[in-house]
Amino acid sequence: MTILPVSIPRGAPVPARSHAHDAGIDLYAAKRVHIEPGEVTVVPTGARVAIPAGHVGIVALRSSLAYGRSLALANGIGVIDAGYRGEIRVALATWEPTPELIDAGERIAQLLIVPIATPAVELVEDLPPSGDGRGTDGFGSSGR
């Protein structure tokens, strides 16, 4: 894939990478919003994209919002399926006791376009062994 078709409202910032080799395409707030403590606020970006088949759009928070302003994606990560053509909206929350303000035109998230595998799901009685000896060992099984 070399081109990602993007549609935005007239006058809105165009989603773009800050540097040529950046993985994420910056997404901008389409309007000014207040984020109240303990509440989830959905921030419109105005951006619509045509993600190609065999790919997924992953929406990740910009690190400056997490570390500098104590904001988080309310759902942890955003998944934009290839067939979706609606506006990308970003659900934000703050864990600070004071409200946060997002200005229109502010960069709020990054969109990563990632190739995916879409295997068919098959129900089985038992899973085949992993081949590496791990088996069902879970949290903390690899040590500190």
TrEMBL record:
It comes from the Bacteria. Its EC number is 3.6.1.23. InterPro entries: dUTPase, dUTPase-like, dUTPase-like_sf, dUTPase_trimeric. Transmembrane segments: none annotated. Residues 12-143 form the dUTPase-like domain. It is an enzyme of class 3 (hydrolase). The keyword Transit peptide does not apply. The keyword Hydrolase applies. Residues 132-144 have a biased composition (Gly residues). It catalyses: dUTP + H2O = dUMP + diphosphate + H(+). One of its GO terms (biological process) is dUTP catabolic process. Keywords: Hydrolase, Nucleotide metabolism. Residues 125-144 are annotated as: Disordered. GO terms for molecular function: dUTP diphosphatase activity; magnesium ion binding. Pfam families: dUTPase. Belongs to the dUTPase family. PANTHER family: DEOXYURIDINE 5'-TRIPHOSPHATE NUCLEOTIDOHYDROLASE. This is dUTP diphosphatase.
